[in-house]
Specification:
29% of the residues lie in helices and 27% in strands. The chain is of the alpha+beta class. The strands form two sheets. A three-stranded antiparallel sheet has the order 3-4-5. Strands 1-2 form a two-stranded antiparallel ribbon. The radius of gyration is 12 Å and the shape is globular.
Length: 66
């Protein structure tokens, strides 16, 4: 996912390894590209399905996901 931040910083974050390595079925469900593409950004977080899967923008700014 390519992200551009308010200060002009850009990062491409690869969610593939995180999703593939998860044993949780709700997380692995986002390996489906159609489902993965349906995200929102609200209040400084990137999330899917009304906060089913959430990543703080501060971490994404650093290129980290966990």
């Amino acid at each position: 996912l390519h992200l551009q931040f308010d200060d002009g910083q850009e990062n491409t974050v690869n969610f593939g390894p995180f999703l593939k390595n998860s044993e949780h079925p709700f997380i692995r469900a986002y390996l489906d590209l159609k489902r993965f593409k349906n995200f929102s950004v609200e209040d400084g977080v990137l999330h899917w399905n009304d906060f089913d899967l959430v990543f703080p923008m501060a971490d994404l700014y650093e290129g980290k996901i966990s």
